[in-house]
Amino acid sequence: MTARPGREAIIYLGPALVLALLVVLAPLAFVLYTSLFANGSFSLEAYQSLWESALFRRSLATTFEISAMGAALSLLLGYPVALHLSRLNPRARAFCMILVLVPFWTSILVKSYAFTVLLGKQGIVNASLSVIFGTEIQIPMLLNRVGVMVGMTNYLIPFVVFPVLASLLAIDRSVYRAVEIMGAKPPTVFWKVTLPLSMPGVASALISTFVMSTGFFVIPALLGGRKDVMLANLVDFYTRETLDWNMAAAIGVILLAIVTLIAGTAMQIQKMRGHARGV
Q: Model-level pTM?
């Protein structure tokens, strides 16, 4: 007698599920416990202190601002790349996709230090501009929002290119032939056909990059300034500087709740759209 499909799934997925529970849920439960229990007794003092903290509110606003800017800028830079890849033959597309992935394969810490060499006042970019224009140029591109955006977009662009590319490749070629026969110009084809039909990939790219950006630590720490402190940097401040683990854990719980809320809302909207289209 053969086992039912449900039992077979439990047999094969059981070890992975147990490992996930131990690796993911156990640390999260400990963080939640640390945020709620101070000196062995239940307390919401950490959350109350954060609510009253101007530093936390400013860091929260900065996190949303930087995440939104990073997601939008990554989309603006990554969409043309995905559009170009969609028009290549499969062999050339595969090679170019490797080039897109090269920054992703490089350590984010190594890249951040590399950008300090490139973007510093005496860095390669300013030195090259000084040679070109024949005068000393020192454009401030480091320890400010510019450096954070450069570092974030370099990391996030692959997460934009691939979902958008998938949507572009899913567009039926006959649609393009039909609008071309009707006399539509390339700009009209893009705005009326390509962009609307690629919106599922665009939405997925925006959501994923925004969610990932909210937890960035290394890039704002190395490339940003005092006005670019995000929630992850605030966690580092409370764990290393003030040694207040309750506050740090509370910030982590709040950050996780924000990410879960955004991702859950996005999934629900996609389900509602799918039901509306009869999918």
A: 0.86
